[in-house]
Amino acid sequence: MTQSAPDRPAIAFAMQPTRTQHVLTSELIQRLDVIGRVLDVAPMERFDDGRARKLLSETEILITSWGSPHIDAAVLAQAPHLKLVAHAAGTVKGLIEDSLFARGIAVSHAAQANALPVAEFTLAAIIFAGKQVFRFRDVYVADRHRGRTQPMQSEAIGNYRRTVGIIGASRIGRRVIELLAPFDYKILLYDPMVDETEAQHLRVEKTELDVLMAHADIVSLHAPSLPATRHMIDARRLSLMKDGATFINTARGALVDEAALLAALKTGRIDAIIDVTDPEIPEASSAFYDLPNVFLTPHIAGAVGLERTRLGEMAVDEVSRFIEGRPLLYEIRRDDLARMA
């Protein structure tokens, strides 16, 4: 039986509209207004104005996404009825703090939905790297004939029986492994949290990081960005890579010593496909923009355009479960924050 309007939980939104197009479609908002009571379809972009204070005073469920203001104890003091924060995006680091858990507020996120396009991007990057697609493109466009590209096809390139190294069995790393299963790759995995039994289940060869760096034709980074993992890919480990190998980073720029990476790339010995950097936007003079063996993209591996609707759908599904008294599928607990990217 549908709850009467006063009994339906009050729902509000906090995000930046210019960054979250397609996240909450009109259909999803209509669905929310059936299972709950949408207070205002316009999201809050700040919590310190009169409109926000009024909304927060009634809100029981807050759906957040990119650009949401930080939720701290002062904000919670204005939201006495808040019971759930459903984040329609990936990481909640920088958005919430311990005060939410101290008050017993449930927190959910849509990182699993954001993992799918990153894994798809990575699969495409691996296939293109193995086939040397960008090199063929550059030579063909420069020459306007096939004098050089024809002989290149006889080189030891392609994706048959190549070795791919996956660093980190994160949700993205695991999805990449799944996507690689139909292909003729040997997959090495470095993740200290994965034991031999789980590695066998994943159908990968568990190995140490140095061994992976030395033996993989393509290295793909999927570890969380934590103090312990900062610059885990340094000059020494980059020096272990095979000549002609490709390094892919769709995780976080801080995981890599970028000065060391650029030095290695300038030799032409390895290639790189880079979607994330540290800082997030490299300086205009950065060699990332100019090196012919670098394929640089502006942090687009995650959900963009229509892919963002997956985030909204996952958040709305979690809201529905919460209202119906069912367990959340993607709940974040206090202890999870220390291990999250």
Automatic annotation (TrEMBL):
<dbReference type="GO" id="GO:0030267">
    <property type="term" value="F:glyoxylate reductase (NADPH) activity"/>
</dbReference>
<dbReference type="GO" id="GO:0004617">
    <property type="term" value="F:phosphoglycerate dehydrogenase activity"/>
</dbReference>
<protein>
    <submittedName>
        <fullName>Phosphoglycerate dehydrogenase-like enzyme</fullName>
    </submittedName>
</protein>
<feature type="domain" description="D-isomer specific 2-hydroxyacid dehydrogenase catalytic">
    <location>
        <begin position="54"/>
        <end position="331"/>
    </location>
</feature>
<dbReference type="GO" id="GO:0051287">
    <property type="term" value="F:NAD binding"/>
</dbReference>
<comment type="similarity">
    <text>Belongs to the D-isomer specific 2-hydroxyacid dehydrogenase family.</text>
</comment>
<keyword id="KW-0520">NAD</keyword>
<dbReference type="GO" id="GO:0047545">
    <property type="term" value="F:(S)-2-hydroxyglutarate dehydrogenase activity"/>
</dbReference>
<dbReference type="InterPro" id="IPR006139">
    <property type="entry name" value="D-isomer_2_OHA_DH_cat_dom"/>
</dbReference>
<keyword id="KW-0560">Oxidoreductase</keyword>
<dbReference type="Pfam" id="PF02826">
    <property type="entry name" value="2-Hacid_dh_C"/>
</dbReference>
<feature type="domain" description="D-isomer specific 2-hydroxyacid dehydrogenase NAD-binding">
    <location>
        <begin position="149"/>
        <end position="301"/>
    </location>
</feature>
<dbReference type="InterPro" id="IPR006140">
    <property type="entry name" value="D-isomer_DH_NAD-bd"/>
</dbReference>
<dbReference type="InterPro" id="IPR036291">
    <property type="entry name" value="NAD(P)-bd_dom_sf"/>
</dbReference>
<dbReference type="Pfam" id="PF00389">
    <property type="entry name" value="2-Hacid_dh"/>
</dbReference>
<dbReference type="GO" id="GO:0016618">
    <property type="term" value="F:hydroxypyruvate reductase [NAD(P)H] activity"/>
</dbReference>
<dbReference type="GO" id="GO:0006564">
    <property type="term" value="P:L-serine biosynthetic process"/>
</dbReference>
<dbReference type="InterPro" id="IPR050223">
    <property type="entry name" value="D-isomer_2-hydroxyacid_DH"/>
</dbReference>
<dbReference type="GO" id="GO:0005829">
    <property type="term" value="C:cytosol"/>
</dbReference>
